[in-house]
Amino acid sequence: MTIKNIAFVIVFIAAIGFFFFNIRRILAYILLGQKENRFDNPFQRIKNVLKIAFGQSKLLRDPVAGIIHFLIFWGFILFLFAVIESIIQGFYSPFSLEFLGTFFSAITIIQDVVGIFVIISVLFALYRRFIQKVDRLDVGKEGNLDAAVILLLILGVVLSMFGQNISHIANNNFILTEYEVRPISIYLSSLFYTETSSNANLFYEIFWWAHILFVIGFLNFLPYSKHFHVVTSIPNVYFNKLGKEKYSLKKINLEDENVSQYGAADFEHLSWKQILDGFACTECGRCTSVCPAANTGKALSPRKIIVDIRRRTEDKAPLVIEGVQENSILSQTLVHDYITDEELWACTTCNACVYECPVTIEHVDSIVDMRRNLVLMESNFPPELNAVFKNIETNFTPWAFNSQDRANWAEGMGIKTLAEDSEGEYLFWVGCAGSFDARYQKVTKSIATLMQIANIDFRILGNEEKCNGDTARRLGNEYLAQMLMQENVETLNNYGVKKIVTGCPHCYNSLKNEFPQFGGNYEVIHHSELISNLVSEGKIKLRSEVEKSKITFHDSCYLGRYNNIYNEPRLPLKKLNGVELVEMERNKDKGFCCGAGGGRMFLEETEGTRININRTEEAVRTQADTIASACPFCMTMMSDGLKSLEKSEQVLVKDIAEIVLENTITN
Fold it and tell me: In this structure, are residues 365 and 250 in contact, taking their beta carbons and an 8 Å threshold?
């Protein structure tokens, strides 16, 4: 064994030992979180990893940044062969992967070609961050320094690899071995060396050591960098929520007498997965760039929320593990000292942050858990919510309406309740807005009329229907939400309900994705889906010619991002001859929130501009004469936006049910 090999072994063992020491340290921090089972359905989880982590599907939603990252990511994956070869050479200098034959040829040509693309990508990434200064990449002085170090280390790894290759080629008289295919390296070798060069071997050794040290430096810088996501992102994607749980909030066991903390006041009250989210965050800013609160000047930044979870964990976890009893850090909490109340209450739970995150961080779950602490443990919430919670508890609706008036909208329509006749195919779940809001009652009647025209056999609950619990749950009042959900499930199951149609996306999401937590398993359909099906089947016949108009459709967050319903509301509109459907700049899965979700419907916006104004201005820019919606909250927010902009006379807001009914042949 040569001096080179001995020196390498010492350096290698020290570097790997230090790296695993840090891995063990961070893993110990993560395991301080609450238990949560994320080990089910391994095949689906592996599929997610292949699509999201390796396929970079979420990153590629932004074509420019996505392609840059894709090339850097896959470049590093492919460079692993070069790294492995160099490491083995540290133990045994003559080693080569050439014994792989034609596979070695594929490795060498890919390294050469992809290496150039990686260099270009790194330089472009530096340009975007430090010269172009893309807003979402602004992470402050410390964060920018961190990014610069990582990018330069990546550049060092690639350049030193090329240095090795061109020196190796020159050292072999510019002759490639049988299976080597290095078109770029052989060209560069002829530029830097001549046939009489005698220092090629020396430079090979220099570049070999540089390559090893850059790789080791990169590896050991990661645990102290936001780029630790290189290690944690794949596990984080693997442990992402699946199925109905993906769009539902986790249930708190309120009957467990051993539970002393509801919600999260500090990092250890979060689950291990939520803490892992903090260490998986790339600080890329995609979440904050699409956040309606952040875009309208509110205190909330989803990126900051997740980074603060990591920061708090790193500050407190070592003290907890060491058993320290007294320290100023221990007297602080995640909520209040790291994350303010204003940040938490600004969230509309629109899920845009979660949808865009390339490593599947679950921002909304953590925000709601911290809201739960404020409401259930501290009774600390905006004063407007006192009336909302009281109304829900006493009237089973967020508004101060008499619950006995819930079915008044149906007078004279010949609609039966389940109490009168429980044999209907569908239960029409009307919802609180559909029952009490004067404007949305017209939508409710339109939905019911269309079902009658199509001979759909349906019933309503009438006075037995109660608020679905969405508003209370997302505002952090889990106790109140569970009470409503359990009572509704009991009513529905007593009647043997199997199919439900509803006109409210918030009701839809709760009934479909959250009621199963309480024993309520139903086939749930939104009215936009039902109407689309009825039109396609010819059970609702549209007029051949309608009044010319231009319509833009506003996507509800709980219908779209939560439940992937984008085309169904648009299909009937597209079939109306004379109607031009125009899209807003932000549409479908990139749609912008109306501002009412997450209980924000009942809270005042005191910071920045109003979210609904931002969205309404975008709708007005399409020059549409009608804004179509499929959600009571969206309808209210868009209507209020038009009033504020003094556009109510020029632009109408209508539900798709109203538009379809107006253009339906009824005889």
Answer: yes
Closest C-alpha to 413, from 452, 462, 454, 457: 452
Domains 397-533 and 542-662 share a fold: yes
The SS3 assignment for 471 reads: helix
The amino acid occupying position 629 is S
Distance CA 619, CA 553 (A): 9
CA distances from 43 to 39, 66, 616 (A): 10, 26, 43
pLDDT value at position 129?
Answer: 85
Q: Where are the domains of the chain?
A: 3-8+62-238, 397-533, 542-662
Superfamily of chain region 542-662: AF0625-like (3.40.50.10700)
Using an 8 Å Cβ cutoff, are 30 and 279 in contact? Answer: yes
Rounded Cα gap, residues 539 and 456, in angstroms = 10
Element spanning 654, H or E: strand 652-655
pTM for this one?
0.92
Cβ(431)–Cβ(504) below 8 Å? yes
User: Whole-angstrom Cα distance, residue 130 to residue 622?
Assistant: 35
Nearest residue to 364 (alpha-carbon basis) of 245, 468, 517? 245
296, 610 contact by CB (below 8 A): yes
Q: Is 421 helix (H, G, I), strand (E, B) or coil?
A: coil
* DSSP line for 50-85: IIIIIS-TTGGGSHHHHHHHHHHHHHHHHHHHHHHH
Q: Are strands 458-459 and 426-429 parallel, antiparallel or unpaired?
A: parallel
Would you state the structure tokens that stand for residue 153, as one six-digit string?
Answer: 């280390």
Surface-to-core class of residue 379, CB atoms within 10 Å of its CB (0-12 exposed, 13-18 middle, 19+ buried): exposed
Backbone angles phi, psi at 87, to 5 degrees: -65, -45
68-72, 260-264, 269-273, 588-592: least confident range: 68-72
Strands annotated E in 578-637: 579-582, 626-629
Our CA dihedral for 620, 291, 59, 155, rounded to 10 degrees, sits at 120
Q: Which residues pair with 628 in a beta bridge?
A: 553, 654
93-133 per-position pLDDT tens digit: 888 888 888 888 888 888 888 888 888 888 988 898 888 88
Instruction: Write out the CATH class of domain 397-533.
Output: alpha beta
Q: Is 237's pLDDT higher than 90?
A: yes
Task: Kindly report the length of the chain.
Answer: 667
CA–CA distance, 7 with 91 (Å, rounded to integer):
10
Distance, C-alpha 412 to centroid of its chain: 45
Mean pLDDT, the chain, integer = 93
- Read off the pLDDT of each residue in 127-153 and give the average, rounded to a whole number: 85
Q: Round to whole Å and give the CA distance between 369 and 132.
A: 37
* CA nearest to 541, candidates 663, 447, 457, 628: 663
Two tokens at 611?
A: 């979210």
* Cα dihedral 354, 356, 359, 360 sign: positive
* Integer angstrom CA distances of residue 269 from 27, 250, 278, 361, 440: 16, 14, 14, 17, 40
